[in-house]
Design a protein that fits this description.
- With about 250 residues, the chain is of the alpha/beta class.
- The protein has 2 domains: about 160 residues, Acetylglutamate kinase-like (Carbamate kinase); about 100 residues, Carbamate kinase (3-Layer(aba) Sandwich).
- Helix content is about 35%, strand content about 20%.
- Helix 2 packs antiparallel against helix 3 and helix 5 runs parallel beside helix 7.
- The radius of gyration is 18 Å and the shape is globular.
């Protein structure tokens, strides 16, 4: 949402970032902002073979500096904008404290995150490359981070911002009549997952299918889980205020 995905080298969409942070300022309470990699993460990860099980470990390790540099630029700019607009916030980079094993979370301490939230400081955390005990290095996606923190910290709501109105019943790029599916639960999940596929842009973390699967696993934690169009001004504020929004809700 805040990167120009097709730009190389990646750049930040300053107009969208400013507007989204203004909407975040409407929230009164604890706040965790989870950033996907966007162009900053996915371009470098793809370049160094992440997402390909046959990539040599040395090539993966060689990609760490570039991925880390790009994600640091993105996260630091978001941190700067939050603080400029009156939201005290700090960046937590997973590479510094999270380890993986076979692409799954091995160790992810959260006490410092809780302490930061208790100090009324917003937490900014992002998809990142992390040391993997089995595969040298792997990508930890923003979606997986959101799932893990929801399980550990039990927030009241998880709002997933995308560039469409939710999980669509057809590809909106080829079908102008595509509509968002208002509710996904255990009764219709198999049909919905059959409709979804990888993103049309470069994405080494699994795309919408993985996103839905992970969010369905959270439905039993009593969080309000919403996938919505973050590019439409006002929708994030409406969600904060419990107003009706065109979106997809995920429930058990």
């Amino acid at each position: 949402m805040i990167t120009h995905k097709e730009a190389s080298p990646p750049t930040i969409n300053e107009k969208q970032l400013s507007r989204i942070v203004k909407e975040l300022a409407a929230h009164n309470g604890r706040l965790i902002v989870v950033l996907g990699g966007g162009a900053h993460g996915h371009q470098a990860a793809h370049k160094h073979g992440f997402g390909n099980p046959d990539t040599d470990s040395q090539k993966l390790l060689a990609g760490i500096p570039e991925i880390r540099h790009n994600m640091s630029l993105l996260a630091s700019r978001v941190e700067e904008e939050l603080n400029t607009q009156g939201i005290p916030g700090v960046v937590f980079s997973p590479f510094m404290f999270v380890t993986l094993q076979n692409s799954l979370i091995d160790n992810f301490p959260t006490k410092i995150i809780e302490d930061t939230l208790n100090a009324e400081i917003a937490v900014i955390i992002h998809g990142d490359v992390c040391v993997d005990k089995t595969k040298a290095a792997s990508i930890l996606s923003g979606d997986t981070i959101a799932k893990y923190l929801t399980e550990e910290l039990r927030p009241k709501a998880v709002f997933i911002g995308t560039n469409v109105d939710g999980v669509m019943d057809a590809n909106p790029e080829t079908n102008p009549n595509a509509k968002p599916i208002p509710l996904i639960n255990n009764s219709n999940k198999n049909r919905i997952l059959a409709l979804t596929g990888p993103s049309s842009s470069t994405d080494v973390t699994g795309g919408m299918t993985k996103k839905i699967t992970e969010l369905l696993e959270l439905a039993s934690h009593d969080a309000d889980i919403v996938i919505f169009n973050l590019l439409v001004a006002g929708r994030l504020i409406a969600l904060f205020e419990n107003e009706s929004v065109l979106c997809t809700r995920i429930q058990s």
